[in-house]
């Protein structure tokens, strides 16, 4: 399989993962009133871990792959995964779905570019800077154009959203490092399984009764499978084929999906400015080169 074909496949996989992630904020809004945000993130981790570990055990004939786990990569991915869940969902409650998503996802490409360059020695091309800046500008317009009245920026929510952006990029770095030893599904199963040791006590300590109602259980399962287990596996596989920096530029399709779903399901309006922002996000993603002059990461290596 040629490098260019691998790259296109990686870009498509990350795009699909981002679209799945874009449903997260809307699903949280559909949870029963008064649902603690920390329990939402915790339920997402625990349910996805159960799904992925069961799948890997069935497919691979057991959990022997756990012995091949890279501990440093696991620590990095778990720190990013848990840090993102707790900071992101709390940020959404404090700042709103649109603003929280804009910052948490919109700022992540720059963090990913810095981590990829410093840790993975990935080159930062001028074209990547251009495509990322265009997409980030579109992300900003998408949110600002959809806000009604003056935007209230809550300092704690903004700080948590930037923390989530860094943790989001850190998570991808851990996945990419782990990819040298495990396949895509195993990588996510190991990370979510380890993160469950942190997430499960949160579920047991805080009020998690919302999960046992009809709507709550549907939301909890959807968060665990459709916004975690499935897209994380797609994202991990895509990271094997493209640079970390490019993956997070493509992931800006997530706020685009979130805003479209907010308009269709939650009744939020998309203004001409928002539509222009959506167009800029798409332009930024399309500006990423399909062919890379520098050597791309080989599939299955980090």
Describe the structure.
The chain has 13 helices and no strands. It has helices at 3-21, 24-29, 37-60, 71-95, 97-106, 108-119, 126-144, 155-178, 184-205, 214-239, 244-250, 253-265, 272-287.
Helix content: over 70%
Mean pLDDT: 85
Poorly predicted ranges: 298-302
Structural class: mainly alpha
Total of DSSP H or I helical runs spanning 4+ residues: 13
H/E series? HHHHHHHHHHHHH
Using the CA coordinates, give the radius of gyration.
18 Å
Strand fraction band?
A: under 5%
Using the alpha-carbon principal axes, give the shape: globular
The span between the termini is 18 Å
The total count of strands amounts to 0
Query: Major β-sheet, in short?
Result: none
Write the layout of secondary structure elements.
Layout: H1 3-21, H2 24-29, H3 37-60, H4 71-95, H5 97-106, H6 108-119, H7 126-144, H8 155-178, H9 184-205, H10 214-239, H11 244-250, H12 253-265, H13 272-287
Quick recap of the structure?
By secondary structure, this protein is mainly α.
List keywords for this structure.
302 residues, mainly alpha, 74% helix
